[in-house]
Amino acid sequence: PFIETLSPMLLVNKEVVFPTGIMFETSMERENNTTVTMLCDLMTGSITHHNPYPETYRKHNWGGGFFYRTVHMCRGLDANSVVLSFPADERLWEFNLSTHTLTAHEGACQSVSSIKPFKETKELISDNPENAVEDWYYSQDNYEGVFSDPYRNLYYRIGRLAVEETPSGFNNKGVVIAAYDRDFSYLGETVLP
Question: Which of 24, 42, 84, 151 has CA 20 to 30 A from 119's CA?
Answer without folding.
Answer: 84
